[in-house]
Amino acid sequence: MGDAYARSFASLCEGTVELLLDRTRGTDHLDVGCGAGTLARAAAERGRRVLAVDPDTDMTGLTRAATEGLDVRVAEASLPALGLPDAAYDAVTANFVVNHVPDPRAAVRELARVARPGAPVAVTSWTNGPTLQARLFRDSFAAAGAVAVPGQRLPAHLDYERSVDGVAGLLTEAGLTVTASGEHRWDWRVSWEDLWAGISGGVGGVGETYLAQTDEVRADLERELRARCAEHETGGVVTMPSVAAWAVAAR
């Protein structure tokens, strides 16, 4: 699945990398949920000493390849127990991580624990706001008669509001003081072939749902989504306006 992610949704998540780096500082940088390694590489190129962690072996492998020759250490570790010392890092980033973990509040408390006093903890999250990407996926799945996969949402007592206030609230509940927050908007540009590689490779909720369908429904879904994406394609590239919530805090 790592290669499928690297070809597809990794480029979507890159849309907030510069924002997070511009909002953080310091020498010792902890990148939690490093994915394909784009943020870790960019942080090292800014002169930071980076520890990049991810629970997925495929992702740590991608990050090692992306950061070869740079001051980046890569390790497998997962929230909410990273196994790292208290107050050890000048900056902590978690790019699209809190929206994937089973307990977002416990995860953010761990991010706060490993940050030094005054060190920025910067996180991003997808929102529930309507986006072109969400509409394309929703309409295509409906037209293909796809059956929803249960259990993709967190239980109500663990979930948080998928908004700027919701993300900032997670940081506040962890004992941090929010210093900045907002929505970040950008255009995700991806070829149809790379987008489909991610979906058919089982990446994310859309990929999991695709793999759960019958062969007939999968074929219908590919046809339906291809036709809809073609309406937003220029020169072989599909452009989808995207939005994320972000917040930075410190203690």
UniProtKB/TrEMBL annotation:
Start and end residues of each Methyltransferase type domain: 30-119
| Listed InterPro entries | Methyltransf_11, SAM-dependent_MTases_sf
Recorded hits in SUPFAM superfamilies, A to Z, give: S-adenosyl-L-methionine-dependent methyltransferases
Q: Which Pfam families match?
A: Methyltransf_11
Question: Could you tell me which PANTHER family the record lists for this protein?
Answer: 2-METHOXY-6-POLYPRENYL-1,4-BENZOQUINOL METHYLASE, MITOCHONDRIAL (PTHR43591:SF24), METHYLTRANSFERASE (PTHR43591)
Q: Write the protein's name.
A: Methyltransferase type 11 domain-containing protein
Taxon lineage: Bacteria, Bacillati, Actinomycetota, Actinomycetes, Micrococcales
